[in-house]
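Readers outside the structure-tokenisation community will struggle with the description of the input data as it stands. For illustration, here is how one protein appears when written out as sequence plus structure tokens:
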Amino acid sequence: MSSVPLPLSDADLESVLVDGLAEIERRLDVAVSRTRVLSDAPSRHLLAAGGKRMRPALALLAAQLGSGTSESVLEAAVGVELTHLASLYHDDVMDSAPTRRGAPSAHEVWGNSVAILAGDLLFARASQTVAGLGATAVRIQAETFERLCVGQLHETIGPQEGDDPVEHHLEVLAGKTGSLIAASAHFGALFGGLEGERLTAVVEYGERVGVAFQLADDVLDLTSTAEVLGKVPGTDLREGVPTMPVLLLRRSVAGGAEDAEGRETLADLEGDLSSDEALEAVVARLREHPVMEQAREMAREHARDAVAQLAPIEESPAKDALREFAQLVVERLA
């Protein structure tokens, strides 16, 4: 890796993370390349497409709150990133996403069956990696995998009668995104020697900053550019994927608010968005609606809550970086 996907103002800390990420990248390459040639290409597909490696970086950073980088920290970080990559294969199949990280999705190249099996293979590799770290690590991995699956199930099935769709969506984000970011922080802190309330604080930080990150992505899907997103703005709307601004709009309209513009926008959302012109028009209307600022504030609130969880942790450059990361997550919304 040529850079660290976290804000760092301490040169020594940056050097530690740069070296750690370079070693993790090497191990990831080995992990996806140790089977037959036939399965190597699909399993390497997303790794080769790149990525920020935010989760391994967070594991390394959490370890610096304690005793620092160790063999266990490196292996745990590899396991977390393999789990993340595996989940992307499955997500893309379920969402019929044509691209990922600027490249064709695996299912577009090899078909759904191969893409799903490639994801399964990476999940297996992640489990093998974590298995060498002891029973506690295996339990963390298993619980995280369960939450990923439950989060995807909840998103696929949708809220049931009597459920609040906004709260349901927050639970989905906690399962699909927050759980793995929390696991990254958990592994780093655990193998960095943190215990008790200090360990719990870092895990809670990871959960909340993960939800803030995904809430910010919900907003950016509507406000960013195709060049930045790697896809057409509003693609989630076209694919029927629930996002917080839309859910807040539905709540507002269902609550009887005097909002003619909102009602018209919601009607357009539920219409035919297959043409780029129709999609662009509804995205433009949503961008101007107050629900966008409400969604931004929800992301900011979760980021502030994440930082508040760090109260039991003594001051250090690593803690400063965790604060700065939470701020960076929501600064993207400016």
Notes: The first strand starts at residue 99 and ends at 100.
